[in-house]
């Protein structure tokens, strides 16, 4: 991001109340940080409750014979739509000239469409309908994330982004925990999918009504073409190598954290012979342990990162801690050990999430395409959730033919991928 180049530019911004493209804010607006955190919490509550708990049991009821294959298909195809929506909406958000702002129309619109998708999933009686509705949900809710998180460089000075990123980062485990808690008290599939989405929409409405959104007063000079569309998903790694290495680091770490999480309910049912309610209760306790660890590492990581002025060590340490947790999870002999493993994974994930967004904003190629570039980086969040479920049935099947067992092999594979992310972060040269 660049500073305002002249007093005239500063005066224009102050007079119109519109933050101009390419400018760096001097102070974070009051109420912005808790508002952004609330939106992220709501989206993750709505999206990750199915990923962590609800979807596995929904698919198991609809297709008890081929549960793993159908679950992998639904989650994989849906995540592919997230892959497209995030950078595309980021690009469109950067070009939006609405009087209501650049980001707010996409944030609110995405949440409304997402709620409709969750209603369809809750009422669905076939795997095909669930898959189609999940695609709609992934596209719309990732549109919310793309536009909402693009407000961070619009609203927050560079020196404060680690702190804000840490606060926002902790919303992921809180969303997972809240979802795990809520489903224990909801009687059926419909409520398990719709109630979290309603909460998300309410939080989004509060945020968009209070956000002093950046506005474009003139349409972009270049039209939005097919080339522009495909440009929303690519970047030049030779021209911007730090951006490329950041993308790979994010992809590998998120594969280890989020990509493998979908199969935890089936792992508990298969290995420990739990029934559905027992698995849901175990996931709640495990997520509580994970969140408690994240509550320590996320804000601490963000604060120390700003204080020390370094991002890479926190990402590397986070990856290594997650590797330890995944290995323990893979060989866990009992439920208490599963819970300990989840706590260790949460400790590492908290450190990663606390500095991830702050690091990303420091390697963006173009200050006038902030949302588009963050959308490209967010592909690294969505892609593991597409690739992992797609390959999981094959990895689990191969592992089942070995003494290790299917799910043990799957979690050890996730540990190797996360380890790659911990190593690759030091290929980023422009950030300490």
TrEMBL record:
It comes from Microbacterium foliorum. GO terms for molecular function: transmembrane transporter activity. Keywords: Membrane, Transmembrane, Transmembrane helix. This is Dipeptide permease D. Pfam families: MFS_1. The chain crosses the membrane at residues 36-57, 69-85, 106-125, 131-152, 164-187, 193-211, 247-268, 280-302, 314-332, 338-359, 379-401, 407-426. The keyword Ubl conjugation does not apply. Gene3D superfamilies: MFS general substrate transporter like domains. It comes from the Bacteria. The keyword Transmembrane helix applies. It is a multi-pass membrane protein. Residues 35-432 form the Major facilitator superfamily (MFS) profile domain. GO terms for cellular component: plasma membrane. Its main location: membrane. It is found in: Cell membrane.
């Amino acid at each position: 991001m660049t500073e305002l180049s002249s007093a005239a530019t500063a005066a224009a911004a102050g007079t119109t109340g519109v933050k101009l493209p390419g400018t760096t804010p001097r102070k974070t607006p009051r109420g912005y940080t808790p508002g952004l955190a609330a939106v992220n919490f709501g989206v993750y509550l709505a999206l990750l409750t199915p990923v962590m708990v609800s979807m596995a049991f929904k698919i198991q009821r609809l297709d008890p014979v081929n549960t793993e294959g159908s679950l992998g298909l639904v989650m994989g195809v849906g995540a592919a739509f997230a892959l497209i929506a995030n950078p595309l909406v980021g690009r469109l958000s950067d070009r939006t000239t609405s009087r209501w702002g650049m980001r707010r129309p996409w944030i609110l619109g995405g949440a409304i469409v997402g709620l409709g998708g969750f209603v369809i999933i809750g009422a669905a009686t076939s795997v095909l309908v669930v898959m189609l509705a999940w695609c709609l949900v992934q596209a719309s809710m990732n549109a919310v994330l793309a536009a909402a998180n693009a407000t961070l460089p619009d609203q927050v000075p560079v020196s404060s982004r680690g702190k804000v990123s840490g606060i926002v980062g902790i919303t992921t485990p809180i969303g997972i925990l809240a979802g795990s808690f809520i489903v224990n008290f909801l009687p059926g599939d419909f409520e398990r999918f719709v109630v979290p989405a309603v909460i998300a929409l309410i939080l989004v409405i509060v945020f968009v009504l209070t956000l002093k959104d950046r506005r474009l007063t003139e349409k972009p000079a270049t039209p939005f073409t097919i080339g522009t569309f495909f440009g929303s998903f690519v970047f030049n790694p030779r021209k911007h190598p730090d951006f490329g290495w950041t993308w790979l680091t994010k992809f590998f770490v998120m594969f280890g954290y989020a990509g493998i999480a979908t199969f935890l309910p089936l792992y508990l049912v298969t290995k420990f012979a739990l029934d559905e309610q027992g698995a849901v209760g175990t996931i709640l306790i495990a997520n509580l342990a994970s969140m408690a660890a994240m509550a320590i590492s996320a804000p601490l990581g963000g604060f120390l990162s700003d204080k020390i002025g370094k991002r890479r060590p926190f990402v590397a340490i986070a990856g290594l801690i997650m590797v330890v947790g995944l290995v323990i999870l893979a060989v866990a002999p009992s439920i208490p050990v599963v819970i300990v493993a989840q706590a260790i994974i949460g400790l590492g994930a908290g450190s990663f999430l606390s500095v991830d967004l702050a690091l990303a904003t420091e390697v963006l190629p173009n200050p006038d395409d902030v949302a588009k570039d963050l959308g490209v980086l967010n592909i690294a969040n969505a892609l593991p959730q597409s690739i992992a479920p797609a390959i999981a049935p094959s990895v689990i099947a191969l592992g089942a033919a070995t003494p290790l067992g299917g799910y043990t092999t799957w979690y050890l594979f996730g540990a190797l991928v996360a380890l790659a992310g911990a190593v690759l972060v030091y290929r980023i040269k422009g950030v300490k």
